[in-house]
């Protein structure tokens, strides 16, 4: 097995990884959610696979690309944010997929990146 020498450890501490774009840990707040908030939502509604909130957060480049309002970049505005476990997991190949937030908190799900065919 080859090791990628560019890889390095950047964080030691609690983390919850939903997908490559939804990594919740200290200092990382994808879609405006903190690790503590995500864990609280998953514990409050452990059987749900979709979680949503309206919160005040900074408009990111990703938000601008999705919504098309470039003049809002960097502003703090009320925004709808969601974690959709059914769609978030599409960039990974799971032997067994988590169906709810409760399952994500109580089990470790092994996965591999989805292979993209060239050409």
Number of strands: 6
Which stretches are poorly predicted, pLDDT < 50 over at least 5 residues? none
**What percent of residues adopt helix (DSSP H or I)?**
10-25%
Number of helices: 4
Task: Tell me the number of structural domains.
Answer: 1
For the record, give the distance between the C-alpha atoms at the N and C termini, rounded to a whole number.
Answer: 26 Å
Strand residue percentage: 25-35%
Folded structure, characterized:
The protein has 119 residues and is an alpha+beta fold. It has one domain (15-113). The chain contains four helices and six strands. The protein has helices at residues 35-44, 61-67, 85-88, 101-106, and strands spanning 15-19, 22-25, 50-58, 76-84, 92-94, 111-113. The chain has a two-stranded antiparallel ribbon with strand order 1-2. The protein has a two-stranded antiparallel ribbon with strand order 3-4. Strands 5-6 form a two-stranded antiparallel sheet. The longest helix has 10 residues, at 35-44. The protein is globular and about 40 Å long. It starts with 14 loop residues before the first strand and ends in a 6-residue tail after the last strand. The mean pLDDT is 84.
């Amino acid at each position: 097995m080859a090791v990628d020498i560019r890889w390095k450890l950047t964080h030691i501490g609690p983390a919850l990884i939903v997908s490559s774009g939804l990594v919740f840990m200290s200092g990382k707040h994808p879609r405006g959610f903190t690790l503590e908030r995500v864990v609280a939502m998953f514990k409050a509604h452990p059987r749900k696979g979709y979680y949503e909130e309206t919160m005040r957060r900074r408009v990111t480049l990703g938000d601008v690309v999705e919504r098309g309002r470039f003049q809002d970049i960097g502003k703090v505005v009320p925004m709808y944010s969601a974690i959709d476990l059914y769609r978030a997991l599409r960039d990974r190949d799971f032997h067994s997929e988590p169906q709810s937030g409760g399952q994500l908190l109580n089990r470790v799900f092994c996965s591999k990146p989805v292979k993209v065919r060239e050409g």
